[in-house]
Amino acid sequence: MKRNWIVVLAVLVVAGCVWLLWRCSNAAEAADEGSDTAHSALDDAAPETLDGMPPDALGTRAVVVGSEADTASAPKRERGARFSSDALRQQLELVARAEQALAGGADETALGVPTELHETRRRALEDALEPLLFETSNIAAILDLLRSGTLAPDTPGNGKLSLAEYGAVRSLYWTILTHAAPYSDVAQSIEVDASALIVSILSALPELDPRVAQRLLDQLAAARIDGVLVLDRRFLGEILDLRRRFPDHAALFSSLLDAMAESMAPEERDAIFRVLLDDDADSKMIAVALTSLLQGEDWPTALSVAETLFDGSTGTAEELGARRAAIALAVAVNTPDPYEAVDFLTQRADATRNMLGVYWQLAAREDARGALEARYHELAAADADPRARYLMVLGLERAEPDQMFAIAASDSDARVRGQALRNAFNSEHYAVDERSLAILESYSSGERAASVAGVITSARILCQRASKQGRRGVVDGAVELLERHARDRRLRAQDRREAIEALRPYVDTPEYEELLRDLSTTAN
Known about the structure:
By secondary structure, the protein is mainly alpha-helical. The chain contains 30 helices and 2 strands. Helix 17 (299-312) packs antiparallel against helix 18 and helix 28 runs antiparallel to helix 29. It starts with a helix and ends with a helix.
């Protein structure tokens, strides 16, 4: 019997819609499909066994749905099956096992041409899924089982999915794909409102165990048909409504907007814009909304909104930090003009001083280095705002070593000099040689000394790089400098501890323990 939906499913499998591949201790590691996938549930799934299941169970639909003859003669509209709770659990485990087997054969496929074994495994997955996909009542039954917790692992607490839970999540995923694809045999055979179906699954998320809810959400957010998101801008209103109905799970629903943002038109962005003005909007919602707005034509207005939101954020220290970090990152990554992004951050240097990742993300933009350099030199010329200068240099970690040494030699602030020194020694373009020790020593004392933290980190970097290159003299000199700092009781305990930890690979255990005891005695 020719099954059109199976052809559709095969295309989805071969094209990369199997976003998660089962990884466990006895399974081959799956191939990663790249940027289109947001799934990681398979990585966390717990391996289990199917006690009593015959070896050929992957290809035997009769195990659950009846005899092979009955199944083969079933008319098209009766290919679905209703299950008791126990039988449904078995079928979900069958789906999981079939995907595990398919994942194990992933490396047997070359250039998208299935091997005979791969075809057999793919058909086994299709056979396991078919009775579920062609009977819509299974959706509610699967969700009921997930809500009840009866599919949970026997040993809870490790955050993993049981085999049955994984099969349930993946069955819901495939149900959505086949019902949402208008050309699939499932969609043509069964008259179901795919959008309502998706909303019903979304509405169940707050009632599920967080382990299951997050993995199901990840798959919903990444589900695509012909490269187009299934959960696109049409669902914006429903998701915003779910955020309001389930305020304790607002962050969960906001995360769905990450994938949806790319399909938003200006009117949808306007809807999100209004949400941004809500004082109770969570940081995830703010980040997604600002990202969408900053990528639009009226990004200057979006930047003004970001400034207002950042400066006016309220709440607990944790909430305030999360909101501001989300805003700063959205601005750093998405503001079309990197000079505007740099200005946004430097004008808020006090509030962003601990957001090192934001500056690194900004520096990762190819067009941002010039903006960081220009802003730094502007501040340095006026000897203004050393904290902002430090953050600018932090973002210039990929600059040429000569540029960093020039800043280390000229900046008036020890912390800025220390960061510049670190950048220079850590640069892939810096050639470690005997002069490196003299440079490091020149910054370890005197009026133009770099920060102690900068010197210690630079010495650790030199030790690591010189060791790889077999430069024993440089290693010995850097170790000697670290030992001086480790034993210097005038230094902060934190700096001495950093020096001791940097020494650990280069001194024997008794000396390392003696340094720690001395530090402990001094601190007390």
